Amino acid sequence: MELNICHLYPDILNLYGDRGNIITMKRRMEDRGIKVNVEGCSIGETLDANRYDIFFIGGGQDFEQEVLLKDLGTGKAAEIRAAVEDEKTFLAICGGYQMLGQYYKTWDGVQLDFTGAINIHTVGSKERMIGNYMFETLPESSGAVVVGFENHSGKTYLGEGVSPLGKMLKGYGNNGEDQTEGARYKNVFGTYSHGSLLPKNPVLCDFILQTALERKYGQIEPLAPLEDTLELNANEYMKQRLSK
Amino acid sequence: MVYKRNEITREKEKIMGIRTRLAVLACKTSNAVLRRMGRGGTNLPGKIALKIDKDILKELSRGVKVTVVTGTNGKTTTSRMIEQAFEEAGYKYFANKSGANLLTGIITVFAQHCSLSGKCSYTHALIECDEAAFRKTSEMLPVECLVVNNIFRDQLDRYGEITHTLNAIREGITHVPDATLCLNADCSLTASLADNVPNKVVWFGVDVPIYKETAFELSDAVYCIHCKTEYEYDYRTYSHLGGFRCPKCGYHRQTPQVGVTQVVRTGADSSDIVLNAFGHSHDVHINLPGGYNIYNAAACVAAAEIVGIDEDTAVDALSRFECGFGRAEQFELGKSKARMMLVKNPAGYNQVINQISNDEEECKIAFLLNDRYADGTDISWIWDVDFEALARQSARFTRILVSGVRADDMALRLKYAGFDTGRIEVIRDYENLLEAIGADETPTFIMPTYTAMFDLRGEISKHTDIKAFYE
Known about the structure:
Chain A: Keywords: Cell shape, Cell wall biogenesis/degradation, Glutamine amidotransferase, Hydrolase, Ligase, Peptidoglycan synthesis. The complex is a heterodimer of chains A (244) and B (471). Chain A is an alpha/beta fold and 244 residues long.
């Protein structure tokens, strides 16, 4: 077996250590003898979504957003929408997660159209939602308790057809109002969780990888367990700390 | 009662004088009390003084020529270098030594160096200032020279985006139009501070690559700050620093008046470079290792010129100054010689890694990760650090020690960097950690985040005689 990962805008959407997710996916596949190829696709490069099984999109700064939106408009947004409908696996974090939605409305009312790949939208607020946080993923997204760090001023709301990735246990999540965190639509996993997300949430990581493998190879055996002591220690430490 | 105009002014001055005196008194007293209690009173006294007199810093700094050092990385080391130059030039100066670099800490240090009437008898002050705090502090200080080292991503949980940091400094500069700016020509973000300001500018930089190989790094400035086109580079020194230019709008690196023209040697303890300063070539020995300190040294020579110290004095100072607090500071811990290298963000950490990788000796390495406010509560940034470069040399490391509040995350990061998990030792207790470090003669590199460094120093001071940070 083999997985091809596309890291979208690796030179721009890389603000909060999100490349740890790529490192982790690669390692956890290679430890099981599954080959992984990672390619970047950035501004001005053509995206051929057919070549990839997993798309990763990280978080970035507002400064580069303008450059990004222009580039998405040149055809990437359409490729992304098609790939989502084609049940390709997406992991999108923070700014990348927002970008998959319909639009972003700034707190003073300016609306920026995003890719519209999934039915969510984000509204800017003046206050930032920052801190360590914790949520429990729904059973259809592994059921694992995820610990991470959120840092966003946008409040995201889920539309019809999209379910939350999980239910908040501690922190703000999507909007600080409805106890939801992240989004799940077909094989899209969207979340606000930095941390990096996948290293200390190995159950969710394997679930995402399994999803991508099954999309490509049909029903397969569950992935073989790995020696995860350090992963689970890091997860457990934050779980304990946030439960106090 | 009817006052004449000048009487009103005099009355006003008298009242203001009383307020200043009161503020200084409160500041000095609370500082003395805190010290007697064995606590480093760096911020609280200034806070009290500010409550009593909101213009206190303006009063206390009147007539003092102030040099401010700000930027993401290297503030403390650059300040220590400039301080050595001040010392050797015989300036009557004082400095904020202990990283008390917020407004309140700066007020405390000015009050300490003033008479009770608020009169300062020093001609110069050397102030390290937090990037975000500079916006406010600059309103009240007569700045003669402003050094901006660089801008990197740093503690984004606190500062938000990199451009916020940059804009805070930019706004601060509008308060000090008479100050000469001493800017890093190689940093496209820092260099943009010279845009549309009336200030005089002296540029410093490094004209050539520093390392043969460098850690993998994400660039914090890929796109032109003016027109958002991708920069082209003639060469890079590290991260986004180097000979940048924008192919579209033409924004480019300025030729520095103080430029490093040759890196002769980068050793474990020091570096040798050739520095061109205002047209004169100098062979310079920098009494600290690391490429980032080459930048700091160039900044020091440029700043010295601005405040009227001749080049030779500044160059000599570089070979003699002592390491700053946690900046490659050396300790004898048990049988081991240890170097403490403060780490705060990916750019700084990668520089420390470059420095360790440049060496070939056997050593122990210790990683201490905390996530308190001063460290940055978000530890995601460790995934942007190139620990993989160290993992490739792991045979050289006799022990791989991990500690700090977030030791578990640090150990996990090392695992995914490629270190053998069986060799990663998590030692939470600092006493046990020091014992492990001191158990044999192999030298040790300790890499703590800010509060971890304080905690570890506290533990070290139980065994040896090191100074408390506020002394």
